[in-house]
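Please check this today:
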Amino acid sequence: MTLALEAGGGLAVDGEVEELPVSKLRVGEGIRSGGLDQEHIELLMESVGSWPPIVVWGEHPVVLDGCHRVEAARRLGRHTVRAIRFLGSPEEAFVEAIRRNVHHGLPLSITDRRRAAECVLVRNPEWSDRRIGSLCGLSDKSVGRLRRLASGGIAAVDRRIGLDGRVRPVQPGQVRARVRDALADNPQGSLRAIAAIAGASPETVRSVRASLLAGATNAAEVEPLKTSLRREAMTLSVLSELSQPPEPVVADPPSRDWLSDRALNACDDGATCVRWFAATDVTEEWRAFVWSVPLGRVYEVVDEARRRASAWTSFASLLESRTR
């Protein structure tokens, strides 16, 4: 029963709740500089019946989320506590512990959130400031300040992974400089060939090439660039002739009336779930829009479509895991 989700880090949580012996649980120092909050423990002791399961990781369970609940259980003399297991690497477990402590339960102080961000920066310097800020409950500017002021231990990287999972250069100007160098060596190279050499997107190559063409001062500079542009235009023209836009396809009605499903509507939050499921249905109507996306936005729309497909696959996998 394992599912990987992208939410600032790969998550993998076993869906089954089990009773674990309190005496076997390991509670580390965590990221709270002041340790456990005694007042919060006392409040938990008065509401023992409403505790959500704690989250643990490892063969000898380490508590990722629920240290206060574990301590409250010990003081109450309880032998077991409800728990779910996190199934992932030590690095993923570290990220999950931060995510849960920042966004659930007793909120972390701003000092502890900064401390958590510094830990993430050391472990994952390739993550963008926005991605780390989202995880630790800080603004991207605050994370950027921590990155600049760090005394050491944070590796320098020229690319960072954003909140959306895409890799972007830290200094875009350096990428355009590499594109210009690649074009100088091979002015008639295709967009994809130059992009592969420079480590850039084809759209960036197109932009740099157009800029060079606009600033060219003599025929020796202009002609190779024009030749390349003409070749690309001819290629697009041929592709357009070979693949004419299809006639819009009228989407078939859904094979099932989800809104009237009695079993789904009877569950907790069932009506909300059914409305969401029915509203997000996608059938064959997408075919009508293949030729509506401008070439300058093809890669962005492709990335977004694949992100949505990945989200649906994750949803289906977790749903299916409940039957195993």
